Each structure stands twice: as structure tokens, then as C-alpha cells.
Amino acid sequence: MVGFVMLRSGKIRQSILSFLIFHLSLTHLLLHVTIPMFWNIHTSKGNSSSCKALVLIDLACATAIFNSLVAIAWDRHRNVLRPFKSLAPRNLKTYLLLVAAIWTYAFIASIPFIYSVRRESKIICSKENNGTDKCEEFSFCYLPSDWKNQLSKTIYFLLAFVIPLLYMFFAYTKIAVSLWQRSKNGTIHGAVAKCKVRSTRLMVIAVLGFVFCWAPKFFVDLLNVYGVY
Questions:
Q1: How does it sit in the membrane (predicted)?
Q2: Taking Cα atoms as reference points, which of 226, 60, 35 lies closest to residue 143?
Q3: Helix (H, G, I), strand (E, B) or coil at 143
Q4: Which three-class secondary structure state does DSSP give residue 140?
Q5: What is the DSSP string of 64-83?
Q6: Which of 24, 84, 96, 104 is the most buried (most CB within 10 A)?
């Protein structure tokens, strides 16, 4: 919905922040709508290669969501600490480089799972109305609790969750301290400072929402692979 509204209004390239919000909405759409459709197809027609590809793309999308939030934090940090530099016009190359950086990092964080994921199949039988058995073979992706999967999950936890979270924490902390100091010293107008604080507060709330939604999954997956949970 957000992406559709921004696409119709033509505000995607109005600023880097607008573009990143649009990219974030598209990534969510890919993760929660498009990829599940391919998972449903994979259960009946999948093979080992499609299993690895789907796991890679699925995990990369989750990482790209956090990377987009990191990019938004970087943009907010630059706008507050270097406001004149942020006014420079942005061309298409800037946006393409941002997308390339986000997804390159996302695939780097997810690529170890190619070596740890396995394809398993199971035959499920059910009774027909005429009393005969109907059996179908379903395939699914399986991550065994071995050292390969433990290493993959640990790397993914650090690269996809911990490092982005630390960067966002330090970026928004530095923004808050800078705004407070400049407002206190009178180097920035009070109304401007309040406006920037308000927009920064909204982004921090959004980040906290993502953290509270995703943190349990990351921690449970990590504990599960080590046999703790």
C-alpha cells in the first residue's frame, strides 16, 4: 500500500529517505507475498537447487529489510550532521548504488546457508471417498543441527541482526546528542530542531517495532540450532 501510494504520487525520487521507504515496502511485499507463493510450488515440484535458491532469497530479503533501516539511519545521520551536503541533487546512479549495497550485503550474510540446507521428501497418504489410498510426495527444505548450520546461523545472526542494530543505535544516538547540543548552543533554530527530533523519533519507533518483531525469531533460531531451546 505504501509503495503504491508513493508510486502514484511520484515522490520516490524526491529524496533518499522516500526512495528507501519505497524499497522497504517492496522488500516486505517480496518476503511476505511473492516468496510464499514459490514455497507452495516447491512442495510439489521442488528440487535441491530450488530449495537452496529459495532459502537464500528468503533470508536475503529479511536481511535487506534491516539493511534498508540501516540506510535510512545513515541518511538521517547525514541530514542532521551534514545538512548542506544532503541538499545536493541525487541522480539515478545514487539510488542504484544504494540498492546494490543493500542486496550485496544481504546475499553475503545469507550465502552460507547454501552449504547447510538440505532437501527432504515425505510421502503423505490420505483416504479417498471410494476407500482407496491417495499418496503424494512433498518436498521441503531442512536445516540439520550440524556444525555447518550452526556456523551459518551464527554468521547470519551477527551480519543480519547484531551489526545493523549496533549501527542504528550509534547513528540515532549521535543524531540525538547533536540536535541537543546544537539546540542548546543556539546554532540551530528551536523549531527546526523540534522538527528533526520528531522525524528522528518516528524512525526510531519504526526501528524498535522491527526489532521487537524480528528479535525473537533470530534468538529462537540461534538457540534451537545449538540445542538450547
A1: Multi-pass membrane protein
A2: 226
A3: coil
A4: strand
A5: HHHHHHHHHHHHHHHHHHSH
A6: 24
